[in-house]
Amino acid sequence: MTKPLQPEFDDAQVAVWNRDLGGQSAAERVRWALEEFRGHAALSTSFGVQAAVMLHLVTRVDPQIPIVFVDTGYLFAETYRFAAELTEKLGLNLKVYSPLLTAARQEALYGKLWEQGVEGLEKYGRLNKVEPMNRALQELGASVWMAGLRREHASTREDLPVIKRQNRVLKIHPIVDWTDRQVGEYLREHGLPYHPLWEQGYISIGDTHSTVRYADGMKAEDTRFSGLKRECGLHELSGGPEYMI
């Protein structure tokens, strides 16, 4: 286990970084982050619709960066196959983390949490997303977390900066200001695939029970968690001291 880096920064420093990086390209932001925090950064991926963009952008600079994949046990079969395809194609240093409680055990103890309203969804997120991600960051010694969030994803992300503090972790979003068109152009330029369910009308892909196809009149966030939530907990400020992120 690597001893976690404790970056020396405060809100003023984060503001300076956001000012400096705001006008830079995604590739420049990635290179800056990996040089500034060399050996202490990790990239998360859900192997979602456009996951190949960030995976390619980051591993071109650092092929050995840890790629954290949280496997809830409820993913689509297509997601597992897509993960295997990209891992081989890009030579990913993949680190798979699963919840401490299996899906069967969780359902036996708590029932189907995703059917229990917002409170159930929040508990589901803590058990299946937040805890495994925290464990990954701690075990990998990563206090800098790179992610492919974009402002176009949802109304909850409209004001997302390039860099933000999330409790004790520094979050970096290199493609935060990219449009869907830019994403598509990058994928085509580099011969990278969308998630296979994209062709079937899925625009945001998570667990099988919390993901539906896009239909006319829907917002992107309506395709996840029955429209009750957009965030699963990973990209929110957590409320308890037991959580790093």
Q: How does this structure look, described?
A:
By secondary structure, the chain is α/β, with parallel strands linked by helices. It has one domain (11-227): Rossmann fold, CATH 3.40.50. Helices cover 36% and strands 11% of the residues. It has seven helices and six strands; from the N terminus they run ααβαβαβααβββα. The chain has helices at 11-21, 26-36, 51-59, 77-90, 103-110, 117-140, 180-189; strands spanning 41-45, 66-70, 93-97, 144-146, 163-166, 169-172. The chain has a six-stranded mixed β-sheet with strand order 3-2-1-4-6-5. Strand 1, helix 3 and strand 2 form a beta-alpha-beta unit. The longest helix has 24 residues, at 117-140. The two termini are 18 Å apart.
Oligomeric state as shown: single chain
How would you sum up the major sheet?
6 strands, mixed
Shape by Cα distribution: globular
The whole-number mean of residue pLDDT values reads: 88
Helix content estimate: 25-40%
Treating each run of at least 4 consecutive H or I residues as one helix, how many helices? 7
Q: What's the number of structural domains?
A: 1
Helix-and-strand structural type: alpha/beta
CATH architecture descriptor text: 3-Layer(aba) Sandwich
Share of residues in strands: 5-15%
Please write the string of helix (H) and strand (E) elements: HHEHEHEHHEEEH
What ranges have pLDDT less than 50 throughout 5 or more consecutive residues? 1-5, 237-243
Give a count of the beta strands, DSSP E runs of length 2 or more. Answer: 6
Roughly how many Å is the radius of gyration? 17 Å
